[in-house]
């Protein structure tokens, strides 16, 4: 069985205030054409279809058109909601769409209800696990703890139980939206940390032939049977070195997996350049980036005059300007920035407690209070976005 694995479309998202609707439309054209040319048996969309819980009308129109085109091809599509989607909104009309071969899986309670497809080797059960927010689904799933690993393991136990009751030789695929240990993150994924822990181990997906993952924007292989497709477009400059693609998966007679990357269209290259302003304006090696979307980091000790306007003369598509003045190692501003680099909100909060106490950090009970407060703020922000 041939499957086309994609995720993280983020329809409606812009890139530093530049609309990406045309680029997203071009990607969906490419997706439909690939499905036709490669004669795929199903398209898998592993969450974050939209960028916001309430997407703009133009994004909804893109989504609607893509689904109509896939239905007209007769290619079944299995789609789950991600942490950017409103599961309830995305799932509206799921029963009717099922008749057209569009299988929306947005209800955590239905995670063990597979889409059943067949080829010359028998049945394939495709299970859709929508994004599982631990605080919201723990009770419904009966998980022991309110953590990502606990709720995902509970959902996968249901999947494995259903699979065990099916005829021998039934192959299996699961779609999930999660941060799996070993994956490399970028700046454009929304934080899903709960209790200080976001990642789940890859062995959560043991027992299925292929796990089609979404959430991380870089295409990557966690294991031969556990893969991220990544986003089809770059959504932050941290993705400048990523090759955007989809996975073309062939599932053999006994569940053997063969994977091939299918490149996605690139609307415009993106680049990060760094140095003093005069160097960026004169360095001949940077000519290759003159038509790219550019993020420029200036290292001049003093802020130059009109840097953005001057950069735009050479790089007309410069979108982001960062100041990182060269400083001596003993400069207190340099050491402060270095201390904060790469630290989470929880770590910064704990460091603050230690600072005001003269070096005595929070104990375990106080850490629990800080984690709970940060989790409540994050879940509250997500709920407020859904309500808007």
UniProtKB/TrEMBL annotation:
Residues 1-218 form the Calcineurin-like phosphoesterase domain. Residues 267-355 form the Nuclease SbcCD subunit D C-terminal domain. SUPFAM superfamilies: Metallo-dependent phosphatases. One of its GO terms (molecular function) is exonuclease activity. It comes from the Bacteria. It holds the Pfam family Metallophos. InterPro entries: Calcineurin-like_PHP, DNA_Repair-Maintenance_Comp, Metallo-depent_PP-like, Mre11_N, SbcD, SbcD_C. Keywords: DNA recombination, DNA replication, Endonuclease, Exonuclease, Hydrolase, Nuclease. Belongs to the SbcD family. SbcCD cleaves DNA hairpin structures. These structures can inhibit DNA replication and are intermediates in certain DNA recombination reactions. The complex acts as a 3'->5' double strand exonuclease that can open hairpins. It also has a 5' single-strand endonuclease activity. Heterodimer of SbcC and SbcD. This is Nuclease SbcCD subunit D. It comes from Streptomyces pathocidini.
């Amino acid at each position: 069985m041939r499957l086309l694995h994609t995720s993280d479309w983020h329809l409606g998202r812009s890139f530093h205030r530049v609309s990406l609707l045309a680029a997203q439309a071009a990607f969906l054209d490419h997706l439909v054409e690939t499905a036709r040319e490669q004669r795929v048996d199903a398209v898998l969309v592993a969450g974050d279809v939209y960028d916001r819980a309430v997407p703009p009308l133009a994004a909804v129109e893109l989504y609607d058109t893509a689904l109509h085109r896939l239905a007209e091809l007769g290619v079944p599509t299995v789609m789950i909601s991600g942490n950017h989607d409103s599961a309830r909104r995305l799932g509206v009309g799921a029963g009717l769409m099922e008749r057209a071969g569009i299988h929306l899986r947005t209800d955590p309670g239905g995670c063990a209800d597979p889409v059943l497809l067949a080829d010359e080797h028998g049945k394939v059960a495709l299970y859709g696990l929508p994004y599982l927010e631990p605080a919201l689904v723990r009770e419904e799933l009966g998980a022991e703890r309110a953590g990502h690993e606990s709720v995902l393991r509970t959902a996968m136990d249901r999947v494995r139980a259903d699979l065990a009751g099916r005829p021998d030789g039934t192959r299996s695929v699961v779609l999930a939206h999660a941060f799996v240990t070993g994956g490399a993150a970028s700046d454009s994924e929304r934080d899903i940390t709960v209790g200080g822990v976001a990642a789940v181990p890859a062995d959560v997906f043991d027992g299925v032939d292929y796990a089609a993952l979404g959430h991380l924007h870089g295409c990557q292989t966690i294991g031969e049977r556990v893969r991220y497709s990544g986003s089809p477009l770059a959504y932050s400059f941290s993705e400048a070195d990523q090759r955007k693609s989809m996975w073309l998966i062939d599932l053999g007679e006994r569940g053997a997996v063969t994977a091939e990357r299918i490149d996605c269209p690139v609307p415009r290259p993106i680049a990060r350049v760094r140095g003093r302003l005069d160097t960026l304006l004169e360095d001949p090696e940077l000519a290759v980036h003159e038509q790219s979307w550019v993020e420029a980091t200036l290292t001049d000790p003093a802020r130059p005059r009109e840097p953005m306007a001057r950069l735009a003369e050479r790089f007309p598509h410069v979108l982001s300007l960062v100041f990182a003045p060269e400083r001596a190692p003993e400069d207190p501003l340099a050491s402060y920035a270095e201390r904060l680099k790469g630290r989470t909100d929880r770590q910064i909060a704990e460091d603050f407690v230690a600072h005001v106490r003269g070096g005595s950090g929070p104990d375990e009970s106080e850490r629990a209070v800080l984690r709970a407060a940060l989790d409540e703020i994050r879940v509250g922000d997500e709920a407020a976005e859904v309500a808007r």
